[in-house]
């Protein structure tokens, strides 16, 4: 039995952000499974079977990968960004935990990648330069009340906040509610970054004040980052830099 | 004037985790500045000057990089991990904001890298698979009371928590206090990961329950990740997998 699974992060889109470790795993693989647009990034070659599947079938995809590895195949599970951040690694381990015990003998590795919030942060400056949190705004798998609770506590903690999946397909009004709540908690005068399709030809960055932010500034390909109370804008001819200093003053608690 | 600055993330240590974008910048650079062990990772070559400096001189290093770029040199500022997470990007922008206005005309890019928490998370499974926060436990630049406040609120939010710089040189007892506080907030029965020197030959991973965690399990090269209330351990012959499922039950708020 020489099968394995590598749950691999392809990064945000630019091939220069794919690690050599992931490239090597793809070279050795017999099969790649993943969401259609991610699998589309893999170059076809002899001996490699591409299994593209639709969104929201993560568990079925994970079971498929585990079954193939148990049959001796070398399977890359392709995620965009980092597979451990709101992506396929957790889904695969959910399937592993529920599945037959012999799956626990499989060789399973997670290969990290450049996650969307860090690609977006790099393009804008360093808005996540000090303490921060990452919240998935989709309420497909958790109650909306939990999202609101986390927003309240994150604002009280004065974290910078990175938001994945800002506009849920199931409930598109959620992001408008989140913005309203954040304005109440943080005030209007707080910079917020909308970073769409970072590192791809469709890349578009926009920084506005929270008071001016509207739900239509985000879509399914947008990463949203809200600054902390310490986050600053540096105005430059080439465009602003958004960053959070490393320090907090005495008395900040 | 063709100078530039690339604030580049070298990842956690393994060369296979350095992105091609960073490798290309190093190929084009005339100068590299950084903390001694990070600069030691750069292969010397003709035409490249390595400027290694001690820890805790981030602002001086940033000024040096800006001055050289203003003189037309092509400068890589080397960070381990990702430069935007508790690293050199924020320090450089602090220096830029304080410095002469002509520095704002410089070509400055941030090149993301694999940050320590995601490298550690990948090795252990997917403990950051759902909402999480990242907190720098060093109180060199912020009051300890703010750290404690953030720990309390993060526990209430039920975030998984990634801790950078768990043992501050200036106040080594801080981590013991953090562990005591976290036990009070989260109980003893919560898995915590100590991941030292991930992806290097010195790599060592250890997962214990919070009730068994002791301060000496971490040093300056250790990344610490505490699970949320949902984080699970899968027992396997090859070692446990630590992961946080994607879902939270109704009523979790």
How would you characterize the overall build of this protein?
2 copies of one chain form a homodimer. Chain A is an alpha/beta fold. In chain A, 28% of the residues lie in helices and 25% in strands. The mean pLDDT of chain A is 96. At the A-B interface, helix 1, helix 4, strand 5, helix 5 and strand 6 of A face helix 1, helix 4, strand 5, helix 5 and strand 6 of B.
Number of helices of chain A: 7
What gross morphology of chain A would you assign?
elongated
End-to-end separation of chain A in angstroms reads: 56 Å
How many strand units of chain A? Answer: 13
Q: Could you provide a short overview of the structure?
A:
Chain A is α/β, with parallel strands linked by helices and 253 residues long. The first copy, chain A, is built from 7 helices and 13 strands. The first copy, chain A, has helices spanning 20-28, 36-39, 58-70, 88-98, 116-124, 144-156, 174-186; strands spanning 4-9, 31-35, 49-53, 74-79, 107-111, 125-126, 132-136, 160-164, 191-196, 204-209, 222-226, 232-234, 241-243.
Outline the fold blueprint.
2 copies of one chain form a homodimer.
Chain A: E1 4-9, H1 20-28, E2 31-35, H2 36-39, E3 49-53, H3 58-70, E4 74-79, H4 88-98, E5 107-111, H5 116-124, E6 125-126, E7 132-136, H6 144-156, E8 160-164, H7 174-186, E9 191-196, E10 204-209, E11 222-226, E12 232-234, E13 241-243
Parallel strand pairs in A: 1-4, 1-5, 2-3, 2-4, 6-13, 7-8
Antiparallel strand pairs in A: 8-11, 9-10, 9-11, 12-13
Helix pairs in contact in A: 3-4, 6-7
């Amino acid at each position: 039995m020489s099968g394995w699974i590598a749950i691999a992060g392809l990064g945000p889109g630019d091939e220069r952000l794919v690690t050599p470790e992931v490239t090597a795993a793809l070279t050795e693989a017999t099969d790649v499974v993943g969401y259609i647009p991610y699998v589309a990034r893999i170059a076809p070659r002899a001996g490699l079977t591409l299994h593209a599947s639709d969104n929201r079938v993560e568990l079925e995809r994970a079971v498929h990968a585990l079954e193939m590895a148990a049959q001796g195949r070398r399977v890359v599970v392709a995620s965009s960004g980092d597979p451990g951040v709101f992506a396929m690694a957790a889904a695969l381990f959910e399937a592993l935990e529920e599945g037959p015990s012999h799956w626990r003998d499989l060789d399973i590795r997670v290969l990290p990648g450049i996650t969307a919030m860090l690609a977006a942060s790099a393009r804008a400056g360093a808005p996540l330069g000090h303490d921060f949190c990452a919240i998935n705004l989709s309420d497909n798998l958790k109650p909306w009340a939990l999202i609101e609770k986390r927003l309240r506590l994150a604002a009280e903690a004065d974290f910078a906040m990175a938001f994945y999946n800002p506009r849920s397909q199931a409930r598109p009004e959620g992001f408008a509610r989140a913005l309203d709540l954040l304005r109440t908690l943080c005030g209007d005068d707080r910079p917020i970054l909308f970073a769409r399709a970072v590192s791809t030809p469709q890349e578009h960055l926009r920084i506005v004040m929270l008071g001016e932010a509207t739900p239509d500034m985000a879509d399914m390909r947008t990463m949203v980052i809200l600054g902390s109370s310490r986050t600053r804008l540096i105005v430059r001819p080439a465009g602003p830099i958004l960053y959070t200093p490393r320090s907090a003053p005495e008395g900040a608690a």
